[in-house]
Amino acid sequence: MTQPTPTPASTPASAPTPVSAPASALRALAHADPSVRLRAALAVGSDPAPASVGTLVERCAVEPDFSVREMLTWALTRHAPAATVPPLVDEVRSEHAQARSQALHTLSKIGDRTAWPAITPALLADPDDEVARSAWRAAVVLVPEGEEGALAVGLTTQLGRGPHETRLSLSRALIALGEVMLPALGAATAHPDPGVRAHALATEQLWRDPEAGFASAVEQAKRIVALGGDGREGR
Question: What range defines the domain where residue 65 resides?
């Protein structure tokens, strides 16, 4: 059976049959079989109750299977933000990377801006790439109106970091902020680090021409940096 990737809006049409009893479902979240855990998370989300939130949050921190983690996140989005946001905010301070990453991911799906103060500069610069990527995505969703420019400045401090997927995630986060990010990005094109300059230029190229693709934008930016340019000639 195809495992679903749920969204907060609705239960997947091809979802497996839920476990019937809520108490049994909560116990089954720790079952050895991931397909059982998947059905259990679906059952808990299909019958939301505040008492289930703590168990769901705790399981997010240790669940090894991606599809089950997505279902746990979906189950949490089925509960009231007043019940889910406080424990998730606590989790973003965890010493365990997966706990931080999954909590941030879930907060981005819930979209409650009361969680914004939890998105600290330390999280945006988290040494774990997966945590940082989750923080960037959550920040773009949760940032209050009027603070996008300051967020863009914070995000540009991470330009040049990590492998291709990490850099692409950062570029997408900056682009999602819209035109307000252009001054901070423009400043980064003059950074003394060629890796930062290339990433900034690639992000600008992707902003101007989304159809070009990130890989193509990166190669073009590398050529510009190698030639000593800033990509602004002829604009």
Answer: 1-78
Structural domain includes residue 47: yes
203 located within any domain: yes
Residue 122 has a CB neighbour count (10 Å cut-off) of 10
pLDDT tens per residue, range 2-44: 444 444 444 444 445 444 447 899 999 999 999 999 999 999 9
DSSP secondary structure of 93-119: T-SSHHHHHHHHHHHHHH--GGGGGG-
Distances (CA, A) of 221 to 55, 57, 197: 47, 41, 8
Per the domain annotation, does 152 fall within a domain?
no
Q: Cα–Cα distance between 40 and 23 in angstroms, integer? A: 10
Neighbouring C-beta atoms of residue 28, cutoff 10 Å:
19
The CATH number given to whatever domain includes residue 108 is 1.25.10.10
